[in-house]
């Protein structure tokens, strides 16, 4: 098994603070903080959290607050957001929040940004950000970047952000890849809608990239759902719960807490549910160490990824950590580095 590619590719972790069936949201948030400490000890490069609003199965609604808790509980790993959804916030407020984070945890904070708005009309109205807000993403991004350089405007000085250097990453939703190239920013992208589409977007990004003070050359982070088990069957089982919650979100409009995998496999699914379940499973990578190493090596070689952002939302917390431990051994990460 050739793992040289894995050993030379940065490996990072995204945790969405998903709630398990029978678990309270506060337990999911505390689990995220504990998990970050474990991930740091294994030698991973970054630990990112995400933003979701009004979702029954997701506790992570305030990423900068949660990032502060994670950074406080760790000492070395980079901490960031994957991402803050800019249409939901004023650029000045986002700049101030990351300015505070960078001031408290210098050299460890990443600002990952996305353009998604709330999933339902009720959530969008509560946030004061209707679908049209996503269309302002480019303007809001330019304003946000300006607050760090003193060009935010309005005769206001962003405190304590002005003059600070916080790495900025753009999620490739909507026009994200185009804007990342235009502003000279790293790109975060996933093969969720097909690998060929992802590869085209990466190619377009690299060709259009304009060097900047934040990134002198293109930098691509590929995100993937990955499970490593002692057996292929064990690994496959770890991703069943999230796949089913994804099916429910697409058929009923609500992403529910993760159910036990056994419960999912015993369900009588409709024909549409079976098709969506298979589609969700196809987007996941799972297997033994050798199988996953081969799959990730191929993904990196095809995409030219500089970094992999890995996610795994297993129902069982211990199995999830064991998966990351196995992958860390494969990649020969340095524990405690």
Structural topology:
Elements: H1 4-7, E1 10-15, H2 25-42, E2 46-49, H3 63-73, E3 78-81, E4 84-85, H4 91-104, E5 109-114, H5 121-127, H6 137-149, E6 168-171, H7 176-183, E7 187-189, H8 195-208, E8 220-228, H9 232-238, H10 240-252, H11 261-265, H12 271-282, E9 284-287, H13 289-303, E10 307-311, H14 317-330
Parallel strand pairs: 1-2, 1-10, 2-3, 3-5, 4-5, 5-6, 6-7, 7-8, 8-9, 8-10
Describe the protein in words.
- The protein is α/β, with parallel strands linked by helices and 337 residues long.
- The protein has one domain (4-330): Alpha-Beta Barrel (TIM Barrel).
- It is built from 14 helices and 10 strands.
- It has helices at residues 4-7, 25-42, 63-73, 91-104, 121-127, 137-149, 176-183, 195-208, 232-238, 240-252, 261-265, 271-282, 289-303, 317-330, and strands at 10-15, 46-49, 78-81, 84-85, 109-114, 168-171, 187-189, 220-228, 284-287, 307-311.
- Helix 4 crosses helix 6 and helix 7 packs parallel to helix 8.
- It starts with a helix and ends in a 7-residue tail after the last helix.
